[in-house]
Amino acid sequence: MSDIDVAIIGAGFGGIGLGIKLREAGFENFVILERASELGGTWRDNTYPGCACDVPSHLYSYSFEPNPDWSRTYSKQPEILEYLRTVAAKNGVVGHMRFDTEVLEAKWDERSRRWTVTTNNGELHPRILISAAGVYGEARYPDLPGIEKFAGTAFHSLHWNHEHDLSGEVVAVLGTGASAVQFVPEIQPLVDRLLVFQRSAPWIIPRLDRTTSRIERGLLRRLPLIGKAMRGGYYTGIEGFGLVGFVDKRFRHPFEVIGKLQLRRQVRDSALRKRLTPDYMIGCKRAIFSDSYLPALAKENVEVIDDAIAEIREHSIVTRGGVEHPVDTIIYGTGFVVPPAVAERIHGTDGLSIGELVAKRPQSYLGTAMAGFPNFFSTLGPFGAVGNQSAIYMIECQIAYIVDALATMRDEGLTRVEVRGEVQEEFLDEVNDRSENTVWLTGGCATTYYRTADGRNAGLYPGWSFEYARRTAKFDRDSYEMSAV
C-alpha cells in the first residue's frame, strides 16, 4: 500500500462520511483504518443500557443520507449503528475499510513527502493522512486511592459488562455526565440500592422523546421536504443554546428556568432537590436532555452522595466525611480521554506528537489542520466542535473543507500543503479572545471538558455553527504553504 493516496483513521461518522464524499469527488485510492473488527466508532463501542443520541435523530445523521424511518425522536445505539452500516454499504465505502488495523505510529517524511504509518498489520505510505478518530473512544478513570484494590465487579460505561447481573446488588455509579444520565434510569429498577456519587449536579433539560408513528414515517418517506423542514427546525432550536454560551450570558435565564421547573416537577423532596440544583450557570458544563434521570434519583432505593470520595476499599467506597459505603459493583461514568490516544502517535515535522502539542495548549486551524503537520487533516480537532450543535453538522463542514483541499492538491499537482503558522496563531488569538467572556470560562465551573487547567477554552469553537460552515465552505488556499516540487 505504498502508493496509497489517502489514509483515514477511524470508521465512525467522520471516516464513513469522508469516504463517501471522497468517492463523489473522484477519489478511489484511499483506505479507512479501523482498529476494531467492525465500523461504527462511538456507536459500536458504547453499548450501555439506554445509550442514545442526545440530539434529535433527524439532525444526528448525514444531511445527504436522511433516514425517514427513525423509530424515536432520539434513536438508541443499535439503530444508529445500523444506520451507519446501511449508509456505508449503500455508498460503497466498506470495501475501503481495513478492519483490525490499529495505527501505532505516524511520521511525516519530508524527502518522500509522504506519511509513514505503522500499523499492527504493516506499514502504509499515504500522501495524505486524515484523523477521524473521534473523541469518545478512550475510557477515562478517576484517580482515586485504592481503585485497583476493589474486589467486586467494576467497569466503565464504555466497556459495559453485559454478562454481569446487577439484580439485587448495591451498585455505585461514579459520575453524573451524559452517559450516566442515560444508564442510571435503566439500572435503577434492577438493583437493590443505587449509590450515585455526584461531584457536581448537571443541568437537566426536558428531552421530550417519543416513538414516531407509522403514519409519520410514511409521510417522511413520501415527502422528503418534511424531513428537511424537521431537520431545519431541530437545527434552529439546538443552535439557540448558543445564546447561553457565547453571545450574552444574560440569555441563560430562560434556559435555567426550564431546568429548575423540570427539577421542581420531578423531584418533590426539597432536600434532594437542593442537592440536585447546579451551582453554576447553564452551559458552563454540558447541559443534558433527559426526562427519566431525575425521577430515577427520587426513587426510594437511590441515594445521591455529593461528599467527595476519599478512597476505594475491597468492598466499599469511603467518602472524605468518613462514611463507608459497602458496594457490590462500581460503574464508572467518568467520561473519556480527550484527545484520543492516537493523537500521541501522530508526529509532525519537529517530532512532537499532536497529543504533546495539545497538552501544552489546545491548537489547530479550524479544527481541521495543524501547523507543523503537512498533508494532515482531521475532523473534530481542537476548536472544531461547538457546544450547541450536532457533531454531525460540524463533521460535514469539515469533510467539505478537507475534500476541497484534496481536490485542489490533485487538480494543481501539489505534493505538500501545510497551514501557515501565523494563520494558525491568528485563529487561536481570535478564538481565545472571543472565549474570554463566555459561560464556559466565567460560569462558575470548577472542572469541565470545556476549559483547560489554566482556565482557557479547551477546544470549542466560540461562534455560531452556521458561521463555522461559512468559513469551511471552501478551502482557503491562501492560508496554506503549498508546493508542487
From TrEMBL:
Q: A single Pfam family, by name?
A: Pyr_redox_3
Its signal peptide is: none
Q: Which InterPro entries would you find in this protein's record?
A: FAD-bind_Monooxygenase_sf, FAD/NAD-bd_sf
Entry protein name: NAD(P)/FAD-dependent oxidoreductase
Organism whose genome encodes this protein? Antrihabitans stalactiti
Source taxonomy: Bacteria, Bacillati, Actinomycetota, Actinomycetes, Mycobacteriales
